[in-house]
Amino acid sequence: xxxxxxxxxxxxxxxxxxxxxxxxxxxxxxxxxxxxxxxxxxxxxxxxxxxxxxxxxxxxxxxxxxxxxxxxxxxxxxxxxxxxxxxxxxxxxxxxxxxxxxxxxxxxxxxxxxxxxxxxxxxxxxxxxxxxxxxxxxxxxxxxxxxxxxxxxxxxxxxxxxxxxxxxxxxxxxxxxxxxxxxxxxxxxxxxxxxxxxxxxxxxxxxxxxxxxxxxxxxxxxxxxxxxxxxxxxxxxxxxxxxxxxxxxxxxxxxxxxxxxxxxxxxxxxxxxxxxxxxxxxxxxxxxxxxxxxxxxxxxxxxxxxxxxxxxxxxxxxxxxxxxxxxxxxxxxxxxxxxxxxxxxxxxxxxxxxxxxxxxxxxxxxxxxxxxxxxxxxxxxxxxxxxxxxxxxxxxxxxxxxxxxxxxxxxxx
Length: 413
Hints:
alpha+beta, Thrombin, subunit H, Pdz3 Domain, six-stranded antiparallel barrel, six-stranded antiparallel β-barrel, about 15% helix
């Protein structure tokens, strides 16, 4: 009996399958297609698995766009409990990869303070009324004297009216997420013949980016792969409304060390597609899209590749460098960063000689270009390394899908 026990312990300690099972995390993420592979790993005489939540129910739930937790217990000889772990079964989703160049225009909620300026009063003295009242760059003006502000002209007119009426303005604003009210003295400016408070403001933004994906089942899209910030304050723009249309690229400014390159384009007047902007998040912009959405490399939607399926190695990106023509280029995924909560989840390097020759690597306007690996859409290009244009970051597609409300927002361990 003692000899048999020693032999069993020795056998178990050397068994590679057992070592593989022992290394499984307590909670791991898996696609539906990986469940049969897991069963195959365990199909030995030593270890068997017991699925406590019905696997078929989990897959049915996943097909609705929701993940499901499957509790698995591993047993020696099918009798002795050895280890338990939970597998999060991710939904089986298909998306049409983008790559189209898009023109983005949006209007912010309220009016953002982007600068301060001195106002010359009637005595010729330079004063800073808004700054002295505590208004800072990055603050969002919501109301002036009880009226909602939706444009820079609204602000200018409201301040002038208040100056003529009472000599000051009651400004309701958002400061670092907190709503507060400031009383600001107005100053009559002889040069402009208007009452002023010394602020530069803006509530609109526009630019060129790249469409990442389109879901033909619900007409939702995702683009850019990163948040839209104000160009002067670098603060996130809270969107009141916005639009996306097709854009055409007519020039490329090549990237070089210390100076990111840029796509130079314009909006297409008779765009084949158009959409709204409902959300501006850390992983991109999202909304609904209508019209003709085509990618010449994909006639049908392709499967989503979840975080657990991404691996270091070759991949493809899709983007426009001239006109509206989508092209395919080679990249290498050099590093995967599972624990980051921003849009920098992968380090990618451009390896395609043609793309390096034309752009130097990753350039502005390429943000949102879909990344495809092993026939699955896994993410999007987001940022370029300032000191190495051939390298940049990518965001996981599942992070974009969460922000687009296409899949459950529960964190994947």
